[in-house]
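Entry 12.
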Amino acid sequence: MRCLSDIVVIIRNQKGGFVDSDCTLQRSIDWKQGLAIALGVPLLILPSIGTFAVTLWAFAIVAWGLSVLQGFIQNLAYGEMATTFANASGLPGFAQTVFGAGTKMGKFIGGFSAWSYWFAWNPVLAIYSILIGDYLSGIVPTFIPAFASISPVVLSIGAGILIFAALILINARGVSSGATVGYILAVFSLIPLFVITIAPFFTGDFHVENITGAWFPTDWDWGLSHILVFLGIMATAQWSACAWETAAIYGPEYKNPKSDVPKALFACGLICLFSFVFVQASVTGTLGISGIEEARVSPLLPMATQVFGEWGALIAIVMLVAAMVLIIQTAFNGSARSMHSMAVEGNLPSYLAKVNSKGTPMRAMVIIALFNVFLILAFSFLNESGGPAAILSASALGYVFANGISLLAYYKAATDPKFKDLERPFKAPKGWKYVALIFAFVNLVLYLVGIVYLNATDPAIGIAPTLLGFVVLALFIPLWWWAQKEQNRLCDTKSDS
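Predicted 3D structure (tokens):
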């Protein structure tokens, strides 16, 4: 019997690719299809619109723009790695491939980066289930009075369980079934967000003075405290505004990666730059800071009602909910495959490496669903303004670690003799390894300190989500130890035979 580490070595060649044709990704998409994969990313702004406006006032518009620009810097590095390591599954795969090729500690660092990335995407399920419950509780009782007695907490839990169960059943039939549902929901992804946010400019509900007269909170002075708060906001913002990395990580599947990767990246980045800045500006200009504070969790609901009336708002919100289900499915599939990837690499117990007859990692999906039901239960009982933002603040810790370590992996791949001479169909600008090193420091030091400080000083969030985030990240240690003991037993069995 081969131990798992032997299997990984056998199937991976020295250039980071796979020699087994059954494991090789097919170059079957162009840059337009790669762009389509990431078109749901603008919806990731929804949980943070209220929190950012309450904290930074209108300057939140600028913060989103800066965060998307940061995404350009980081994603150029990820785009290069996507075409260098032929079978690496995005950020988790990059870090595991580069660091896992060295010492035991390197293998742990790569695995921890993958675990951090899993924790960054995984809570999307809980966050958007809570948002769905909140949006439905704000509009549906108007038309179905029986729903008036149902609390947003119950609606969130019910919505989460139903959506998770449905997606498990659909995806159990294989990725093609999930993709079909994704295509249907994709029609609804940007349309409601665009319609709700552009309409106030035509109806006269948008007032520019709500922005120009409220750039910063009245006590903002750019002292140390406010600098730390801003760093925390930027750490949280990248969870949404830099997530268009999904257009780059499919590098091995582009027909012509040298041209397709930059086209998909820049097209998606420009869309995100416009959408994140525009949505925050529209909401701020329409509702004002006080109006956003009154609807901190779901500010698009009063906007839709104000612009379209109750029936128009109902249609827009139902479409928006469908779009949120699309985001949940994207995160669900990505999280399950991240866990599966870690198990295959020997960084999680092999139990999670099992797939069903259709190739779906069902065990991972069930565990993820149960974990997110727990998150909904835990955070829905916070005060009304805390739920989604509190979960996001914990999840963003994972993204900080994942980005920081992945950027270090890029630097190592550019300087380590084992990797620096590999073919790179798409290359970031010359000297980009030093830029990546700087932003690794920004993530692992400045953003980490900032997000801990921001959470601790925000009464709507508090320190509890931060502590929970560190606990979840620390769970990787016993799980990794378990996986290593399991591999050692398999290797011992091989030696004895």
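Annotation: The two ends are 8 Å apart (CA to CA). The chain has one domain: 27-484.
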